[in-house]
Structure formats: C-alpha cells, structure tokens
Amino acid sequence: MAHTSSSSAWALAVYCRGTSLSLPRSTGCSNSATPPAQPRGRTLRAQTSWVAVHIRVLASLTVILAIFMVITALVKVDTSSWTRGFFAVTIVCMVILSGASTVFSSSIYGMTGSFPMRNSQALISGGAMGGTVSAVASLVDLAASSDVRDSALAFFLTATIFLMLCMGLYLLLSRLEYARYYMRPVLAAHVFSGEEELPQDSPSAPSVASRFIDSHTPPLCPILKKTASLGFCVTYVFFITSLIYPAVCTNIESLNKGSGSVWTTKFFIPLTTFLLYNFADLCGRQLTAWIQVPGPNSKALPGCVLLRTCLIPLFMLCNYQPRVHLKTVVFQSDVYPTLLSSLLGLSNGYLSTLALLYGPKIVPRELAEATGVVMSFYMCLGLTLGSACSTLLVHLI
Fold first, then answer.
1. Distance in angstroms (rounded) separating the CA atoms of residues 34 and 181
2. Domain extent for 11
3. The predicted structure's pLDDT at residue 23
4. Which residue of 1, 92, 268, 359 has the fewest CB atoms within a 10 Å radius of its CB?
5. Residue 268 near residue 253, CB atoms below 8 Å
6. Per residue in 86-125, is it b (16+ CB within 10 Å) or e — as a string?
7. CATH code assigned at 25
8. Could you give the number of structural domains in the chain?
C-alpha cells in the first residue's frame, strides 16, 4: 500500500511540474487542465480534518519512510535468537505502516479532488504503475537471484529511495504555480440543487457557504447522499477484486504443471496473477484518460460494476488447488485463468477510476477535498470487506 501511494504522489508531482500555464480571462471555475483567472470574492475551503492536508501528507510519508528504514536495517540482522520479539516488532511496524498509508491515501485523494480530472487520473494510474513495476521486479528477482536476504534488501532499499524521492517531489508542489492555483481557497460555493450539470462548472448556483463557514466542517450528509451511487460503485468494484485477488488467483495452478517447465511451475503464478493483473489494471486506469463512459449519472456504471460478480464463479471453475467441495475443474486450459486475470484487472482499473474521478466533480468545488476523502473511504471499505470475505470463498471451493 505504501508503495502504491508513494507512486501516485510521484505521478501527480511530475505531471503538475510538466504542465504549462496559460491563464485565460475567464473567471469561472473550470474543470480543464488549464486554470482560469483567479476569481474575486469571499473564499473558503472546507476542512476535512483539524490537521492541514500538507501536514498529514508529509507526516504520513515520514512515518512510512521511517518504518521502511527500520525494516531495511533488520534485513541483515540475525533474529534467530529473538524470534518472538522480531515477530512483535514486525506486527507493530505493519500496523503503523497501514495506518500511515491510509492517512496518506485519504489525504492525497482529498487534495487532488480540487484538481482537474486529468491530474486525478494521473494520480490513480500512478498507483497501478507501482504494482506493475513491483511485479516486474519480482519476476526479475525470481529469475536472477539466489539469496533471499539480498533480494529483500534490494526491494526494501529501492522502496526507501523511492519514498525519499516522492517526499522531495511533493515538496515541489507548493512552488508550482499550477498546483498553487488549484490548492487555493475557492469562492464560497454552490451546492446540491439537484441539477444534472456538474456544480463545479456552474458559478450561478445558490450559495451554501453559510452552512459551514464558521466551523469549516464540510456537510457530510449531503456529500454522502450526492455520492451514494458512485460510492457503491467504488466499494463493490474493490470488494469483488479483493475477494478474488490474490486469495483465489494465487492458488490457480497450470494444468501442465507436470511437464516440469519453469513457465508452468515457477513463473506461472507470478506471470498470470501478479504481472498480468497489474498490467491490465494499469491499462484500465490509463484508458480513462481518453474514454469516460458511462457518465457519473448513468445507470450503466453500477450495472457494469454488478456484472463483475460473474467473475467469482468463473475463477472458482479454474484449476484452483487444493479443492475440497468443488471437485470438477470446468476450464481445462491455462488460457482461461489468463484471460480472466486480464479481465479482472482491466475492469477494476477502468470502473474504479471512473467512479473515483467523478466523485469530487459532482459536488461544489469547496467540498471537493472532503469528497475525495469520502471516496477513498469507500475504496478502503471495499478492500476490507473483500479481504475479509475471501477466506470464506476459499473454503467454499
């Protein structure tokens, strides 16, 4: 998770740095990548936490970096004499790392909710890119390395270097005119009027600032109501994905395993499960940069999300081993798990990215940060539920 989050921050920083500025005379709040002229009038931004987003991002990255440095230092340490203590240290590190990663993810998603869609899309694609790079590195290590400790040291050291690089790139954001524009306080805004148009592009909508200008607390109930459909899509997409991947995928064996080939034994799962899924996920997320169909208010979006439920029985009918209850393997070819892994990753990347992108764009701009945090909560909820239920699914096979 830490690796994915840091890759996303890197993608956002690099993208913002490479975008040229040309400020037109328009005073509206545009959703395009070129920011309009600075609007005039009373401004505010809903606060999603008592702690500023910059502090949350930097603090969580610092904690993640510190944990990785500790783990890296312990790689070459002989822990055979204090296995219980080492286990306790590892568990504590994982708990802290998970908490810091959650804070970072929610903060960064919230912050980018105020940016145009193409910036948010770059952020989300960065997460999938991190997974793809990790899968490739794992394959290279599997083919070339013979020492487990040296491999672990290389992995953790690389992650530590990337984290330091990401912190440096994030610090550059405040110096970029492009980023400063979209992170500025915005006009006291416009809210939920039941209109079909995106409120961020409708400066004539009625004001809602008086509801929370004193407390600086975003109105959570209207946000939840407005994003209910998209929230369901995000939760269910990640629920189905984490239900299948990796619990079921990693136990699907090649039907030609007895041939003795390294491609059907040693490399089969790393290729068909990890690399193929992550690459398809990256392609699906990147596809949203050019195609954004269905729209945020379309019933086809939740329909496509629900359709992914069919993937569960299809994976169960592949050569999952060991089998206890379902004795029959229906798909008698290695082509089927390969295609299903690709479909799982592609649909996960495309549908989840669409829903995550739409969320902050269907609310007033001063609520975009809060909505981004809410959407990240939906994502975490889906991952948690799917992971919890995956054990039950495994027992059913």
1. 10
2. 2-396
3. 33
4. 92
5. yes
6. eeeeeeebeeebeebbbbbbbbbbbbbbbbbbbbbbbbbb
7. 1.20.1250
8. 1
For the whole model, what pTM was predicted? 0.79
pLDDT at 22: 34
The radius of gyration computed from the CA coordinates of the chain, to the nearest angstrom, equals: 23
Angle separating helix axes 117-144 and 335-358, nearest 10 degrees: 150
Q: How many residues does the chain have?
A: 397
> Looking at residue 206, what is its pLDDT?
44
- 238 touches 352 (CB < 8 A): yes
Please measure the distance between the N-terminal and C-terminal CA atoms of the chain and give it in whole angstroms: 28
pLDDT in tens, 112-143: 888 888 888 999 998 889 889 989 988 888 88
The whole-number pLDDT of residue 152 equals 86
Low-confidence ranges of the chain (pLDDT < 70): 1-50, 185-218
**In this predicted structure, what is the pLDDT of residue 338?**
94
Residue pair 170/28 in contact by the 8 Å Cβ criterion: no
Cβ atoms of 201 and 362 within 8 Å: the answer is no
pLDDT per residue as tens digits for the range 137-179: 888 888 887 778 888 888 899 999 999 999 999 999 888 898 8
Contact residues for 50 (Cβ-Cβ < 8 A; gap 6+): none
Structure tokens at 239: 């629920």
CA distance 289 to 126: 13
Give CA 322 to chain center in angstroms. Answer: 31
Amino acid at 235: T
- CB-count exposure of residue 225 (10 Å: 0-12, 13-18, 19+): exposed
